[in-house]
């Protein structure tokens, strides 16, 4: 207990390694990196910047905000002025510090940021105001009531963010506070519209991101000498320290030797290194099934978690490295020092991986589970020979107090790992001996790509081990039926149907385009406001996000967001060949089945999602007709010719099916038996809607989808100079959508265009403008999304998600 308490004492964060005042985090000439976080920040900033430029001139809200700011007490003006001046002073000091320290690359980055920010400022002013800004506004930072954006804020922001990536942590933090205070002060000091200040700030963010991506920033971890000094000041004696041959994403690893010859492993979570770790965690959270790993937003928190999990595992009898100490350096880097050598399973010779070691690996995993630890990253690098015993290392992604499904995920990962190392037959035999038939059968549903780490999936592919075939071996060894999830081969009936759908989609689009008078349409569009049309196109893509939310609310299982969003994109591709609700239901059901949802639950969830969308549309239509002044008369003709014949055929088939259910006993018995077998799963799916958050996702997502579609239609109408009320837009769009869903024409092609044109004409648009707005709306919501929907469908298939 004293040893355990002493180690816990060592886990308390301490600042070490202080070597006097410093300005820049690393010395000159060190390696530079392009940070993924710059992309994560820069892209949204660019989109927000475009939205603010499009929204200029100031709205009524901005003018009211200007009046409010003008009423602020005058005695506070000197304080705002000081904060605003400090913004420019800090930017100047950073450039001077770089010059004095002879950081030529940093000076070059600062100059590039200034030029880039100035160029973006000029372009934004030209688009928003309609004229080029005066040179005084850019060079001498003069601002008037019509200045947009403010060059002073943009240039200072660009320099501070660009140079800040090279500073030590205290100075970088101080710079961020100065930047925030200066930007807020600018809204009170500069005689411009309130929107000009955030626009200028976003200009600086975009410029800094561009320069940092182009030239890179300093390494996000300390140099080896700095790590060595920090470790020694922790009281850990180490001779030499060298970077490890393998550097995993998100952490800098160094190896050394203690005086007694025992190996030491030092893990450093630096600034940029932890950025990579954080982005990896965000990606896996969005992309894969919920694995319970909590997002840790600080470096020391990540180190403390790994140290605690390692201690618990070691105390539970798992062979792993010994925790020596955890601390935080003066530069803000979190360090974890471990003692012990480990040879990864994938580095062992094939003859060294015998049956005894396979069974020892299962014992180690069982001990970790008994100790309340789910590793969640079991693979060829984390299953290792620690001393003479098989154990586990690298608990950075582990979960404390895991759920049963997380423990089963660990077992599925270990089975796949041993299949790579020893072959499927020996791996399944060792798992059967260790877990028994019931335990082996329990892990089978989790033996799928979505439950395996990326490195393990690559190892399986390199070893030519198919996950689906391995799952079938597991089912056979356990004496159970194979799981529902089966391997999708390269050429199947489904792939042939996919090609046929692509041909049909291309044909229908070309036929629709061939019937248009492109010259007249081009002339109408040429006179439109392109900024509104561009904004309408962007908004028209957002309903896929809200449809994903409603889908998440319809199924009782926890699903990752990104695959669900890809599924919605794939639905857009399927809509070209099927009516929208039928396509969405078919894709949803197949997707849910591939995610492990039972067939009845998948059918119920898909039906719930589709039914809720239709009910929301119908309710909105009724509410609009009863409680608003919207009363558009969509005088659409009934379908004729082949369409009418198809309606009659479908009606006859429905009647025959109903009679067969009632009169043929064998059919009636088969249906009743299937319903009885499925009813528990259906009831479970319906019971999941009792959770308030799921119901909110389901209803809120469907409602937001209708609002976004209506807003997109309104933006296209606005692009031609006509303002249509939201109630009228909802009424037009919902009426046409419901009509198209009941007419058996793939995607409602022709029907939707006609209905939208008639509706917009009744709302006050001229016939040519109504036609152009309807066609652009349909192009952005129906004809273009299948392009990326086709690739999304392929991505889902490649990842065995559809």
Strand order of the largest sheet: 1-7-8-6-5-4
Radius of gyration (CA) equals 31 Å
Strand content: 5-15%
How far apart the termini lie comes to 52 Å
Let me know the number of strands: 13
- Class inferred from helices and paired strands: alpha+beta
Parts with pLDDT < 50 across at least 5 consecutive residues: 1-19, 485-499, 632-647
Average pLDDT, all residues: 77
Query: Can you summarize the main beta sheet?
Result: 6 strands, mixed
Portion in helices: 55-70%
Shape summary: flat
DSSP summary: helix tally: 31
Summarize the structure.
With 802 residues, the chain is an alpha+beta fold.
Provide structural commentary:
- The longest helix has 29 residues, at 599-627.
- It is flat and about 80 Å long.
- Helix 20 packs parallel to helix 30 (767-783) and helix 27 (692-719) packs across helix 30.
- Helix content is 64%, strand content 6%.
- With 802 residues, it is of the alpha+beta class.
- Strands 1-7-8-6-5-4 form a six-stranded mixed β-sheet, with helices on both faces. The protein has a three-stranded antiparallel β-sheet with strand order 9-11-12.
- Strand 4 and strand 5 (252-257) form a beta hairpin.
- The chain contains 31 helices and 13 strands.
